[in-house]
Amino acid sequence: xxxxxxxxxxxxxxxxxxxxxxxxxxxxxxxxxxxxxxxxxxxxxxxxxxxxxxxxxxxxxxxxxxxxxxxxxxxxxxxxxxxxx
Length: 85
Prior knowledge:
This protein is mainly beta and 85 residues long. It is built from no helices and six strands.
């Protein structure tokens, strides 16, 4: 695992859905942006989230990382933290 620096947050994206809640199976060519995930690492300047929090973030502010299922965002790109999840 990589340790985040400054105001960076490493987020492991939720798994891609293979079916809708109603049971419709989604094909591989159904591509959508994943904007929800679990925080894996936070930099020392980050005050609003901690490791393990499930967060929503702005899709256009993400940077790729060492893993295709992990993105890096700045703390100010976080839109919210899920409660009781």
